[in-house]
Specification:
heterodimer; A: about 110 residues; 6-stranded mixed beta sheet; 5-stranded antiparallel beta sheet; about 0% helix; B: about 110 residues; mainly beta; 7-stranded mixed beta sheet; 4-stranded antiparallel beta sheet; 11 strands; globular
Amino acid sequence: QKEVEQDPGPLSVPEGAIVSLNCTYSNSAFQYFMWYRQYSRKGPELLMYTYSSGNKEDGRFTAQVDKSSKYISLFIRDSQPSDSATYLCATNSGGGADGLTFGKGTHLIIQP
Amino acid sequence: NAGVTQTPKFRVLKTGQSMTLLCAQDMNHEYMYWYRQDPGMGLRLIHYSVGEGTTAKGEVPDGYNVSRLKKQNFLLGLESAAPSQTSVYFCASSYPLMWEQYFGPGTRLTVT
């Protein structure tokens, strides 16, 4: 079983909708939780991160972690066509030396 | 400030040929990583380095070798390419003990 599970989609929603992207993980040692955004034929770029449980908000984006259920979420409000991309959740147990564990990524399409 | 750059952008190899992928970063990062990204598999760590002259194996190291002779460069070598190594290769770098990784634009490799 892969340590981070993520539905690959595609997920298609109309412009202006609220988008919910989710991941589950199995290793309780994971402490840092990140969302990367990857546009087509580009490298991933960090969008948001959280440490341990709780919420973090940045503009239209909210990241949420529930360690009790090992569930990671990213919410996008007022979605825009420019949000169309693949969203990758990632975790590590701290330290960063051994790289990140990524989900497979969810392909999101925002329809104008 | 170019960030993380990768050379070449595209390459086609025949089975059994060898090649070296070059990654360079100008952010003075200690840690550097090589990932491969395959459809349905997500990003997987091949090798990583926590400093000049040091390397370590990641999740999928077989068939690859790496070297970190200079702090700013991280080389990934394929000694005898196989079709299973057809993939998009991403290099990333980060500060020590930090979870935020900066990715390069990727190298698309096809092995026929």
